[in-house]
Design goal:
Layout: H1 2-20, E1 24-25, E2 30-34, H2 35-43, E3 48-52, E4 56-68, E5 73-84, E6 92-105, E7 110-123, H3 130-145, E8 149-152, E9 159-160, E10 163-173, E11 176-183
Length: 184
Amino acid sequence: MRLHRRLLFAAATLAAATAAQAGYNIWTGEYTFTRQELQQAVDKRFPATLRYAQVVSVQLTHPRLVLDDANNRITTQVDAQLTNALAVSPPVNGTLSLNSGLRYDKAQRAVLLDNPTVQDVEVQGMALYKEQLNAIGAVVAQQLLKDYPIYTFKPDELRFGGKEVEPGAITVAPEGIRVEVKDR
């Protein structure tokens, strides 16, 4: 009976320690961030309006994350509304898919979106302008998502048992991302 109580106490202590390390899995040595947590981080960046050469205005809303575990990348799909200041036509609506890798920045203690590129631009009735739309999409990707932090570690999250640790490999999984923790 005494052994049973000790095991229960040890399990409760371990659970409390794990809960205090938001998303840290002591068994795998990784931080995990769910799709929902990542979506909330990206949601903070939108809505956004960007202007190009005082002619085209692009309003971006409703980001939706797609986790691409096969390529270890994240795709952000957004609704886009393009307005041409020189034309007296109504705005053009479509979707923009921006694809990003992930990297850790030691100075910021943050996981950042890395090397965002335009994956796809869908604007109904604008197939003739696909090249120009892709060029605008590429600029949008760089201006909006390049080095955007999706998680910033608190100092105590990078210290275990009095030892400093640092994030290592970042892996995109179907349910979120995993960030390996290794000794310094």
